[in-house]
Design goal:
Its EC number is 2.1.1.14. It contains 27 helices and 21 strands. The chain has about 775 residues and is an alpha/beta fold. It folds into 2 domains: about 5-110 and about 130-410, TIM Barrel (Alpha-Beta Barrel); about 440-520 and about 560-780, Alpha-Beta Barrel (TIM Barrel). The strands form 6 sheets. It has an 8-stranded parallel β-sheet. Strands 17-18-19-20-21 form a 5-stranded parallel β-sheet. A two-stranded antiparallel sheet has the order 3-4. Helix 11 (about 320-335) crosses helix 13, helix 13 (about 370-385) packs across helix 14 (about 390-410) and helix 17 (about 465-475) packs antiparallel against helix 18. The longest helix has 22 residues, at about 480-500. The radius of gyration is 27 Å and the shape is globular. The termini are far apart. The relative contact order is 0.09. Bound molecules: glutamine and zinc ion (ZN). The site of zinc ion has 9 residues, from loops. Zinc ion binds near residues 117, 118, 668, 670 and 692.
């Protein structure tokens, strides 16, 4: 008889209506007590478990809930807070988990987390006390980075987790506990204050007893299965890390509970044999991204180990093709002697909660989609179908899925022959500027007539309450389009006026009319849709609502032209046209799964390219195409970097190459590490590249110098993420340092990112100091 089980790796915790976000923020404002916040958490967990039970999952998953972040939760669970917080070992009763105040101190620092700039998420800095945030693999979720040193000790503080287990059991649910496994936990952390030669993998022997004790205690509480996530098995691992797996899991095998080792986001490749050999009771693999490995994994995974197949895409919002899934699963089921577990490919943290109440999407598009709740229903249908229970409801669900999948594949809303043809027709000349940089530079100098050490900003100026209120009122229909437009034109005039007063050389219009740098363009492009409630946690209480790219992308009409020409009409000085690049548009959206990302990127590139052409025709002399997300799109495996970088940089070049030689193309990138992809960044051939670098004291620039970056460069001379106003002297020092690496004729002077999160007062002083710094540099050369 078939024995098909269903489970999930993790569930979105923010709540159907972002209850957790609102509760957290109320608590941080001092409007609710810790007990009230705990109660919200308890209610959300109960609701989410009930939903899992109702979908017929064989277990509810406990341990995926966190008030801020699951890695932070594990720092608490294993009592390894960095010493600087003052509640590390010896200073707190370690039998007890950290309380909320302690957790939030680590997450936000004692002075609160600094404002963040970059579209989808934040940078971890500010007062320096908070733990660093990093992107969770290639997702847009940010986790808090554990810190390890040779002094790190671990001791189990499981009362919070055990409390949640007891809660679920009291509600009558069979429980599977999910945690990050010990090797991924150490890998995802960083070394701090470490002695020479210290490597955090060496902490494994200290950490394992805590895991072992936990597994034993969970077993004692009647928890049969514990899921340990080791997604790093999908990465290029150094030998020391790979070799640690076997002994690690031999030790954990002694502890009792049955371990479901969970991998996701990436094929296992050279770690496939290792993962199958480990002495665990089950292995979960990503059946979406590693589908081609399923057969060999099934061959290698000895009975009676359980194979869990992540067949439903946990990273995207599309409905599963259930017929295709069944044809993958049926032979596996047979191979496994009738025993198989089914799950989403990864935690559902990365998709929105439920399509119910999704009012903004049109019904046809909606019928093609599945959020977390709908993905659970898909698992139930698959379980019934594979288990041979083809009752009426299952039949109906399969038929409905078939219809939606078929409809999407054939829809004219998805396919636009004109777009496909344009992409096919792209030739090498379409991705090349006419003349090489040196020649363009001469033409642009003649046209723009800028001083040495030209000053500029990255694009946005403060998004004031007035601006936000006007946009909200316009969206609600309470402010007529004409009035909204008048208000935005006034904001632009205001921003231009202030920049002239400050004395900047190259101006921007300030982006007042933009809610978000991706959404603003997506809303005006065919092929993009916007949901009403498609929120996904980004970090802490912060959520994003990524656009959904569902069809061929085309630009029906100009998107920025009227604002750009208005801004340019206000000044003799050049005002940059401001666009978002194709890779960033792609990276911060849910993308199509019916064509390669590269194809979608080229379609977006062509749409933005048309905007470049319109702007230059209207006399705009400088156009910036932002690509802050180009680095974060890098695949998890090195072997796939070249392929990605080839199409990503090509998409940028296709966008930019519409520009005549005398039109100056700028681009901007956030995040400071570029050294390993510098040749590819150079291949984008932007005339001017502005980067974040103030926080690394220009260290990033060394690479640009060493590797001979050929074009002009604007290393950020001050950190816009902090409200403190930089002094002229500090900026002069940074510019001097920069000029040791890049000759001054190729250097620009600018902050390290957009200013939309800052206030006007600090912005004006900071920029005035920056302009003074540029003047000092001019005087000295
Ligand atoms: N032009 C954008 C701005 O200034 C760039 C933002 C970003 O780098 N994420 O806001
Ligand atoms: Zn930036």
């Amino acid at each position: 008889m078939n024995n098909v089980h269903t489970h999930l790796l993790g569930f979105p915790r923010i709540g159907a209506n972002r209850e957790l976000k609102h509760a957290l923020e109320a608590h941080w404002r001092g409007q609710s007590s810790a007990a009230e916040l705990e109660e919200t958490g308890r209610a959300l967990r109960a609701r989410h478990w009930a939903q899992q039970a109702a979908a017929g999952l064989d277990f509810v998953t406990v341990g995926d809930f966190a008030f801020y972040d699951q890695m932070l939760g594990q720092i608490g669970l294993f009592g390894c807070a960095p010493a600087r917080f003052g509640f590390a070992a010896g200073q707190t009763d370690l039998a007890q988990s950290f309380d909320l105040a302690q957790s939030f101190a680590m997450a936000r620092g004692t002075g609160g987390r600094g404002a963040d700039c970059c579209g989808d998420g934040g940078h971890a800095h500010g007062n320096g006390a908070a733990l660093e945030m990093r992107k969770w693999f290639d997702t847009n979720y940010h986790y808090l980075v554990p810190e390890f040193s040779e002094h790190t000790t671990f001791s189990l503080a499981a009362d919070r987790l055990l409390g949640e287990v007891a809660e679920a059991q009291a509600l009558g649910h069979p429980v599977k506990v999910a945690l990050v496994g010990p090797l991924s936990f150490l890998w995802l952390g960083k070394e701090r204050d470490n002695a020479p030669g210290f490597e955090r993998v060496g902490l494994l022997n200290r950490l394992l007893p805590a895991y072992g004790e936990l597994l034993a205690r969970l077993k004692g509480k009647g928890v049969e299965w514990v899921q340990l996530d080791e997604p790093i098995l999908g990465l290029d691992l150094p030998p020391a890390w790979r070799n640690a797996f076997e002994s690690c899991y031999w030790q954990l095998a002694q502890a009792g509970a049955r371990i479901m080792l969970a991998t996701y986001f990436s094929p296992l490749e050279e770690n496939l044999g290792l993962a199958c050999r480990l002495p665990v009771a089950g292995l979960h693999v990503d059946g979406v991204r590693a589908r081609h490995e399923l057969t060999s994994i099934s061959d290698w995974l000895a009975h009676p180990k359980v194979l869990s197949v992540g067949i439903v895409d946990g990273r995207n919002v599309w409905r599963t093709d259930l017929d295709a899934a069944i044809s993958v699963l049926a032979p596996l089921l047979e191979k496994r002697g009738g025993a198989l577990w089914l799950a989403p490919s990864c935690s559902l943290l990365h998709v929105p909660y439920s399509l119910e109440g999704e009012t903004a999407l049109d019904p046809e598009l909606r019928s093609w989609m599945a959020y977390a709740a709908e993905k659970l229903a898909e698992l139930a249908t698959l379980k019934a179908a594979l288990g041979g229970r083809l009752d009426a409801a299952t039949g109906a669900a399969l038929a409905q899925a078939r219809q939606a999948i078929g409809g999407r594949a054939r829809s004219t809303r998805v396919h636009n022959d004109g777009v496909a043809q344009r992409v096919r027709a792209l030739g090498p000349a379409d991705e090349r500027r006419n003349a090489p940089f040196a020649q363009r530079q001469r033409l642009q100098r003649a046209r723009l007539n800028l001083p040495d050490w030209p000053t500029t900003t990255i694009g946005s100026f403060p998004q004031t309450d007035t601006i936000r209120a006007a946009r909200a009122a316009h969206k609600r229909g309470q402010l007529a389009s004409d009035d909204y437009e008048t208000a935005m034109r006034a904001e632009i005039a205001h921003a231009v006026g202030r920049q002239l007063e400050i004395g900047l050389d190259v101006l921007v219009h300030g982006e007042a009319e933009r809610n978000d740098m991706v959404e603003y363009f997506g809303e005006q492009l065919d092929g993009f849709a916007f949901s009403a409630g498609g929120w996904v946690q980004s970090y802490g209480s912060r959520c994003v609502k990524p656009p959904v790219i569902y069809g061929d992308v085309a630009r029906p009409r100009a998107m920025t032209l009227k604002w750009a020409t208005h801004a340019q009409s206000l000044s003799e000085r050049p005002v940059k046209g401001m666009l978002t690049g194709p890779v960033t548009m792609l990276q911060w959206s849910f993308v199509r799964d019916d064509q390669p990302r590269a194809q979608t990127a080229l379609q977006i590139a062509l749409a933005i390219r048309d905007e470049v052409a319109d702007l230059q025709r209207a006399g705009i002399g400088i156009i910036q195409i932002d690509e802050p997300a180009i680095r974060e799109g890098l695949p998890l495996r090195r072997a796939r970097w070249d392929d990605y970088l080839a199409w990503a940089t090509r998409a940028f070049r296709v966008t930019a190459a519409a520009a005549r030689d005398d039109v100056q193309i700028h681009t901007h990138m956030c995040y400071s590490e570029f050294n390993d992809i510098l040749p590819q960044i150079a291949s984008m051939d932007a005339d001017v590249l502005t980067i974040e670098s103030s926080r690394s004291d220009m260290a990033t620039l060394d690479g640009f110098g060493r590797l001979g970056y050929p074009n002009a460069l604007g290393p950020g001379v001050y950190d816009i993420h902090s409200p403190s106003v930089p002094g002229t002297g500090a900026m002069v020092r940074l510019l001097r340092e920069a000029s040791r690496v890049i000759e001054p004729a190729r250097l620009w002077v600018n902050p390290d990112c957009g200013l939309k999160t800052r206030g006007w007062a600090e912005t004006e002083t900071a920029l005035a100091n920056m302009v003074a710094a540029a003047r000092q540099m001019r005087a000295a050369t």
